[in-house]
Amino acid sequence: MSANETTASPESNDSGMAAKDPAKRRRVLLIVAGIFILIGLVWFLLWLFVFSTRETTDNAYVGGNQVTISSQVPGTVVAILADDTEHVKAGQVLVKLDSTDADVRLRQARSALAMAVRQVRQQTDSAGGADAGVAARKVQLAQAQSDLKRHLPLLAAHAESPEIVQHLRDGVAQAQAALATAEAQAKAAHAAIAGTDIAQNPAVEQARANFRAAWVASERNTIVAPVSGYVAQRSVQLGSSVAPGQQLMTVVPLHHLWVDANFKENQLRHIRIGQPVKITTDLYGDDVTYHGKVVGMGAGTGSVFSLLPAQNATGNWIKVVQRVPVRISLDDKELDKHPLRVGLSADAVVDIKNDNGPVLAPGEALPAASTSVYDQIASQADAEADKIIRANLGSASH
């Protein structure tokens, strides 16, 4: 075979490649178009089944109650029994004030209460004596009237002198006047004690109230924690003179926290109370997810409640998308397992598939917080007052 027969000409090779290039380009274009269509379809499905069923924000922060500890009475600090980062229980003593002056006033109130009880006892006995005087005067009047009645027939029969009968009439008049005086004295004696027993007498009640106030003031020299939590921002020092209302420290109960998620106003269209929320924090990352629910939305945007609110009525107005805080509750059990701190940043994802719930919180709600540690002071004061009253009643019958 000759060389001319075995070697293809260049013109024939160029024409074959030109015939294959358009088909190859079409396949590439179809593949690229298919990829874009697939990406668009995936994105549409993600939006339909994922993104359109939730609202997300990373402008969210952990919130909690910050209970300010302050004194209710003036005094000098003599002991500090809790410091920053320490856990305290409700009713635990945090700070003690010098109680010298309060103890003196408490002793005075104690003696005043005892004296009031004794004085009312004396008034009660005086009223009993006045009643006995009235009974005696009634007997005297009856006797005088009986004597006069016996002598009147003798006077008619001229067997008795008129002077004796006149003396008997005068005796009846005197007995009547004495009875009236005794009844008035008995009425006056009963006016101070009528309608109540000794313990409920107004004078005793007044002294009891003064003693109760002195007892409470004395007990308030011991400052206790109203709730269980962790101490923060301790500023009190030994020897400091504190005034009522002055902040001494703060107790933060980390068992009950929430998240304030600041959503844009165009994200609030489908957010409703009761919707489930997933929370992640920068502290634990995606390893820990908290499950909460929407419990309410703020009554206004953050700019409205700022120190210097925006003046949107001015001529240099610029539209700015506002944010509204949405309160999200957290599960206490999850908080106990993975504790958080107030102020930590978080990411919130609200499931908005069911948007039939209310937008506004119900009119009646449970108390946000409550404590009973101060009830003991009042009950102890009442028990001590009852003890003083019983000790000074003596053998009084009521």
UniProtKB/TrEMBL annotation:
Residues 258-348 form the p-hydroxybenzoic acid efflux pump subunit AaeA-like beta-barrel domain. One of its GO terms (cellular component) is plasma membrane. InterPro entries: AaeA-lik-b-barrel, EmrA/FarA_HH, MFP. The chain crosses the membrane at residues 28-50. Residues 165-192 form a coiled coil. Residues 100-220 form the Multidrug export protein EmrA/FarA alpha-helical hairpin domain. One of its GO terms (biological process) is bile acid and bile salt transport. It is found in: Cell inner membrane. It is a single-pass membrane protein. Keywords: Cell inner membrane, Cell membrane, Coiled coil, Membrane, Transmembrane, Transmembrane helix, Transport. Its main location: membrane. SUPFAM superfamilies: HlyD-like secretion proteins. Pfam families: Beta-barrel_AAEA, HH_EMRA. Belongs to the membrane fusion protein (MFP) (TC 8.A.1) family. This is Membrane fusion protein, multidrug efflux system.
